[in-house]
Amino acid sequence: MLPNARIEFLGGCRDMAPVLVGTVPFGFVAGVAAIGAGMSPLEGIALSFVAFSGIAQLVVAQLVAAKSPAIVTLAAVFVVSLRFLMYSAALSPHLAHLPRRWRVPLSYLMTDQGFAMGARHYALPGDRSLRHYRMLGSGLTLFCTWQAAVIAGALLGAQVPAAWSLDFVVTLSFLAILVPAVRTRADIAAAVVAGAASLAAAGLPYKLSLVVASLAGIAAGVAVEGRHRR
Amino acid sequence: MSDWLVILGAGAVTFLTRASFIVFADPHRFPHGFRVALAFVPPAVLAAIVLPGFAMPEGTLALSLGNHRLLAGVAAAAVAMRVKNPLGAIGAGMAALWGLQALFP
After folding, report:
1. Burial bucket for residue A188 (CB in 10 Å: 0-12, 13-18, 19+)
2. How is A110-130 classified by DSSP, letter by letter?
3. How do the domains of chain B map onto residue ranges?
4. Model pLDDT, residue B28
5. N or C terminus of chain A with fewer C-beta within 10 Å?
């Protein structure tokens, strides 16, 4: 590795450090949830390696536990992964010059935190030609920590007392991403409508409330943005 | 068997959405309306995940002071608006929840 590339890579590892304190309990909860849903430790850990997405893993665990049809489970995974489409679109101009052997692993490693950090990296002044090493460093740091936490959860999960309410870390982690993502009036409309709809539609089977609420929120955001512009 | 199908399917779905534009497509070729709608995906999807976790921890709507997770969520949201580091909100929310559980079991 070039010396400058190594500096970027290690800088990326360091950037991710403060986030990891939330990653560990979240990953642990995801590991516990897979076992709680009746999956074997091997299945829970395999799911974590192929999906590498906390919310997708939790959705799979919930729906496997509810014995949902595979197609319904995958549709729910698609809905919670819609935000990756947006992240991918936002980062792609920065990564378009890279060969495929870089773009494929950087895609695989992209997460909510990784996206937020990547967007910040590319906004920094100075030479951007080696910034992908920085993304690789932050992505790998999160990946290794996450997988270690999931494995610990899948293997030891049953021993954590429910009174610790560790599962609440998951909701809080998403709150910590949601709040900075709400900037404009249209964002507020999208979040409020989606939040209200998720409560109103909670009775729907197979977590369909998530799908319905997300689409309602997106529609509300588009509507407010459209009216604002005119 | 069907568990493994779901596991591999979940891997395919998460990878393909992540790789969509970075590996396969040019975002500038998509219609403007599609890109406008994509911008609202994070606030909408995240709110739809977060709100039930606060307002219906047991699966039914609980908008009362007896709902510790709702109060802890409000505290965490207030912190998240002021503190950039995600740890602030997570720490404040867990501290509030544990405090409420200890005081009002």
Report:
1. middle
2. --HHHHHHHHHHHHSSS--TT
3. 1-39, 51-105
4. 72
5. C
Q: Is residue A138 less than 8 Å (CB to CB) from chain B?
A: no
Nearest to A78 among B7, B13, B44 (CB): B13
Residue of chain A nearest B88, judged by CA positions: A176
Give the count of beta carbons closer than 10 Å to the beta carbon of residue A204: 13
Which one of B2, B6, B83 would you mutate to disrupt binding with A, by most A Cβ within 10 Å of its Cβ? B6
3-state secondary structure of B91: helix
Quote ipTM for the complex. 0.88
Interatomic CA distance for residues A155 and A112, integer angstroms: 26
Interface contact flag, A169 B54, Cβ < 8 Å:
no
Rounded CA separation A201/A183 (Å):
26
- Looking at beta carbons, which residues of chain B come within 8 Å of A103? 19, 22-23
Tell me the pLDDT tens digit for each residue of B3-55: 899 999 999 999 999 999 999 877 677 788 887 888 898 899 889 989 999 99
Torsion sign, CA atoms A104, A42, A58, A156: negative
